[in-house]
Amino acid sequence: FFLYLQKYPSYPSSLSQVIEMKLLNIASLFILISGSSAFAPAPAFTRQSSALGVAVETSDIKNGMTIELDGEPYKVLNFSIMKQARGAAKTTIKFKNLIKGNTIENTYRSGEKFETALIEKAAHQFTYEDGNTFFFMNTETFEEVPVDSKVVDDKVDWIEEGMEVNLVFFKGNVIEVVVPQTGVYEIVETEPNMKGNTAQGYTKPATLSCGATINIPGYLEQGEKIKVDTDKREFLERAK
């Protein structure tokens, strides 16, 4: 159009100005639309999958693996392999249903396949407890997530205010609370060390700051801090 005006200068000036302004408005609108992607909202936070739903065989089974059976998540507590003189070996697996809490034990032929549960894990900080509900805050989105005490289960022994844990999600619901495998806690109650007691391997019960009770070496005193294996509920060493 601009070339047309140059070629035919007698073109009515008032009409040419109107058309020129229209073209400029269209060009401005095109630039605005093409640049709008820079202001697009950031994608919403999504939890990262920690395990894919893939097929595994009995030889791939490991303690702690989460398997989907009949549409529900089951955690492998332990397993044993029984070899036979004739025929294929058999694997006996003890599972815990992470929704209902019950345990089952089944025996499978070597080579049988399972489907791993599609689960997601996200870091959360424990904030407070109200009745039978524990509240955790997502450390990235600050979203508060309520979790029933039945799901927290025996992990309640190790959870302290402000502690960071992993919440495990299955189909959008929290099915498990995972605490750090090791933690440092203070001995808040235990019997005093008896002088002269040199018996090797002597242990005594102790209550820790988190509420758990474990056996500790007899030489440890109230007020000391120790490192503990939360899975095995065992004393590891004095905290440094």
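^ that was protein a. below is b, sequence first then the tokens
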Amino acid sequence: KKSGDRRHCKWCAKYKPDRCHHCRVCGTCILKMDHHCPWIYNCVGFKNHKYFFLLLIYTAAATHFITWTMLDTIMESVDSATPFASMFAILFGGVLAAFLGILITGFLCFHTWLMLKAMTTIELCEKRGQRGGKRGGSPYDRGFGGNVRAVLGDNPLFWLLPMSLPSGRGLYFTEEDPSVLIPARELETQRGVPGRGARRGRRQGVDIDAYGGPLPPRSSNSESQIWAEVSRTFGYGATDMAMLGKSGVNQQDAYDGAFSGTA
């Protein structure tokens, strides 16, 4: 968890990226898992973190609006001429709105602080921020603007609207993306462990488990040189290279080692 090496979930037996955690309630791994919320009966993770954050904003705004606009009605209901049933209903509604408003506002402030710190609730509890970067900070910190965009999306015009989700696939969250990743074909079916090609590469001294290590810089190499470099790095044989060539894989894409499952 702290070495940066590839992990696999012991429950799902599949590849487990950084910031991914297994939820025993949902029975699956959640990318960038924040917590399991019983109120929405779902996990809060990479794909719905913005929706959860907006839910807090909308709920806090609604409860505050109800509380402050009901003050005059509550004061009038205290009059002895008001029927007991009406007075009870008004007082109960006002107190309930005020209580929920205070509770959700505190929860919203907490998650806003987590967003600006580039942390999740699980990471805060595990104190993973001491792994790197500033002491007490997060290794995934991208600054104020970057941290907000990582949750609310890239376009500021849609930050308060349930649309325009953050870019990315939830596999990595650092500014410097890994230059080489194991292709999906090198992961054994339904298991997050390197396949035969990756093991051959490891025997040849290629550190593929730790995202492969950087390849030489892209240059104007010939097509044959590029394919030779791909074959040497990932341990592909002649049959593998022939299959890649017939599938129409772009040589530079294969050279870059994009984690798209096509190389």
